[in-house]
């Protein structure tokens, strides 16, 4: 939809009173996009807002009666193809952001003024109009003489601007040279905050967020329906992180207070033994690395228990994407990062590359073959998306030609024929399609790759319903998941310790981040005693201990300001810590107040590095999440008895879906991906909102650190480890926050004796928060992490 708006100038005659701006017609919802200006114009900023930086997306005029951002007069809206045009005979609509400001803190939400360059250009144009004797630019050209006269004036003013004004503007726009080490910063990617009144979905993949919103809006589905469709979508578009060949945790809280945790974690096959990985890397690559997947059965159970929309309708969007889609920016990025892995695996190469055929003659020419296109040699027609790589691309079959493969690139056409057929069967038959009908074929594919999963292993898989755990932070009720997730108990212990520190009185500085780092080290030491409660005695007692106030008091008393210690200070002996980086998370809140968080995974990026030819599904390598024999895992960490391989056992995970209540009402849903960095990232984003008053976008954009006890180092993003100078940071669509404190945090941590490794990747977090003003005016605020190029959607 496109609309017209007029801006209130708050009494400043130098500011424009009317402006045309564009709004994109899509499903994102109402995107708040605002640029910060200087503190010296704070009073003026409270009265003005840049319309070109506010996009009204997929909203009708009537909808604005429910969402009223501050600082704007009443406007009329008219739908056009591209631009916003005035229509005086429509009802006027008021947009008011002020209620949102009261919830998240006043400064971040104050409307900002025009930038220096645009303010100068406007004043030049105003001066030209006054010289020409016309208040409206349309009057300048009513007669030829006036037009010629004003043209000369405009040309002279333009030359004056180029000579005198442009250097000033460029100076304002360019980064200032640092006065102290670490002051200069370069803004990289933006966290977009979307606002809705009925529903919001925050996922890693922007297209999948939109699909979730369509389920809510167009099919009148609930949060569970939207979460299922979004998860299936991410398995098609981002299969390096999440597929039907992996597992998931589903945390649900309904508006009526019902809570549920569906454990769809992968399990070790019935033939698994503790000795099977003693002397090889087979827990990472190939069929032996695959654990029995559980994602599809968990999604189906969630639908049977709580869904509203027919199952088939939730699968159909993913069928369409598997039939034909475009390679997204994140997938293209991951393909480049894992290029060697792709080309080493025939099945990955078939799925993620395109062939280039080159004539061997001197006048060599190239013919590019995209997925699904045909090529003909020796009167034989093949399609790249069908058959096997060996059948279709054996260069010895084609005289005078050699072929090579290049990675798929962003916006390349892409189809997954085998996966489409599997999804079509799943749409009709549900989980039985994979765990019964295709079980034998899938088992044979895994065994050909060296695995041990049988059809019986697949058909016997069961989702476990568990009771969520609760803990408290500053009057908020936090709901998370118990083992085999370590995330919930570890997060609970971290926050119990930090609550004693009263971070809101300390602020964001070296002292508060030292306390945070020490809390992380203690918590990760306790985490390593956890395991699958069905196999590890004492797990339930360990969870209770980690959530107790007494342990938090004891550990907090051992934190020494400006001093850190070796790992033995935090835990009695070194234990294992496995990571699952091939992971994704989504958060959903619907109109009724139902909330869902799903974290799904294939463990390492691209899982076991092979695709089942019969189903088109990329398989997990979760067996490496166990302590595998007498060797370190893929991340150089030592084995632990509590997490050893046993048939039917579920490996320990760091997945941490989290639902937060405030005064008994839904407040936010969040979670993340990134192995153990999930826990530390979720903790910091939560603290940024609950303790420091950030809106969700700023909370996600803020720089983060990570410590997992082993290795004994602090991983910090966005800065140089030796100098502590800021590097690339993240901004928001509301502002360009000042992250200069991060450099001082680095310096202070070094002074306390911490080892710093930087720049380092952080986890990836998605948040949907509910801003309920006096129980009457509801705002849903969604934000996805730019670290994975995500974007939320709302309506």
UniProtKB/TrEMBL annotation:
Alphabetically ordered keywords of this record:
Membrane, Transmembrane, Transmembrane helix
GO CC list: plasma membrane
Report residues binding L-glutamate: 265, 601-603, 625, 653-654, 675
Which GO terms label this protein's molecular function in UniProt?
glutathione hydrolase activity
Q: What is this protein called?
A: Gamma-glutamyltransferase
Indicate the residues that form the catalytic site: 583
**Pfam families in UniProt:** G_glu_transpept
- PANTHER family from the entry? GAMMA GLUTAMYL TRANSPEPTIDASE (PTHR11686), RE13973P (PTHR11686:SF9)
Return the annotated region ranges for Disordered. 1-45
| Example of a GO biological process term | glutathione catabolic process
The membrane-spanning stretches of this chain are 149-170
> Sorted alphabetically, which InterPro entries does this protein's record hold?
GGT_lsub, GGT_peptidase, GGT_ssub_C, Ntn_hydrolases_N
